[in-house]
Specification:
This protein is of the alpha/beta class and 227 residues long. 41% of the residues lie in helices and 22% in strands. The protein has a five-stranded parallel sheet, sandwiched between helices. It has a four-stranded antiparallel sheet with strand order 6-7-8-9, with no helix packed on it. A three-stranded antiparallel sheet has the order 10-12-11.
Length: 227
């Protein structure tokens, strides 16, 4: 049974999420402020954190940033009553795995939780470090290095790279990549979104982004990872 920590200061919402997730077969734990949430999230046995952005003592952004700075890889789904794009960008930049804007349906939340847990378990029991050329990818800590230098990948970029690694040698269409990497996003992404993320990823891991060696284009189809 997966154990989910809910960090939410709205008691009625926290109670509703707790009851609903238990009905779905999850174990739950609740924290009412950021400081308590940070303490509990660091404990062993937590499989995922549902983290509100606006919290007493420490904000959700501060909690997530601190967790990642301490090396925690526990998956985080952030919640916010705000809908501005800036909030989503900040949440993902500090290491959140997904982002959901209030109000949301419980069905959508469960779908997001299941998707994040699937991605987290995908490499369970497998080799956690993968190398190609002068690039090293630690799938557990999400650290990427090129030529011994640390690279900063946004969560979506890392997720895309992770999927390429898992399916190396396969030609994947843009639609396949959208289904695998973007999952249940509230706003339906377009195939152009894949191209933009691949271009940014190439700039970081390729020696020459204009002449890619590792992520090559399959004409009129999609992409193939050759690492």
């Amino acid at each position: 049974m997966s154990r989910i920590l809910i960090v939410e200061d709205d008691q009625s919402l926290a109670a509703g999420l707790c009851d609903g997730l238990r009905c779905e077969g999850y174990g739950t734990l609740v924290a009412g402020d950021g400081a308590d949430g940070l303490r509990l999230a660091a404990q062993p046995g937590i499989d995922l954190v549902i983290l509100d952005v606006m919290l007493p003592k420490l904000t959700g952004v501060e909690v997530c940033r601190t967790l990642r700075a301490r090396g925690s890889t526990v998956p985080v789904v952030m919640l916010s009553a705000k809908g501005e794009e800036l909030d989503k960008v900040v949440g993902l930049k500090v290491g959140a795995d997904d982002y959901l804007t209030k109000p949301f349906s419980f069905t959508e939340l469960v779908a997001r939780v299941e998707a994040v847990l699937r991605r987290t378990r995908r490499f369970a029991g497998r080799e956690r470090t993968y190398e190609f050329g002068d690039v090293s990818v630690n799938l557990r800590t999400r650290e990427v290095e090129k030529g011994g230098r640390s690279l900063t990948l946004l969560p979506r970029e890392f997720r895309l790279l992770e999927h390429f690694i898992e399916h190396r040698g396969e030609v994947m269409s843009r639609d396949q990549l959208l289904d695998a990497v973007w999952d249940h996003d509230a706003m339906s992404p377009l195939s152009r979104t894949v191209d933009m993320h691949v271009a940014k990823l190439r700039q970081k891991i390729e020696d020459e982004g204009s002449a890619p060696r590792w992520i090559v284009t399959a004409h009129r189809v999609g992409y193939k990872f050759t690492g």
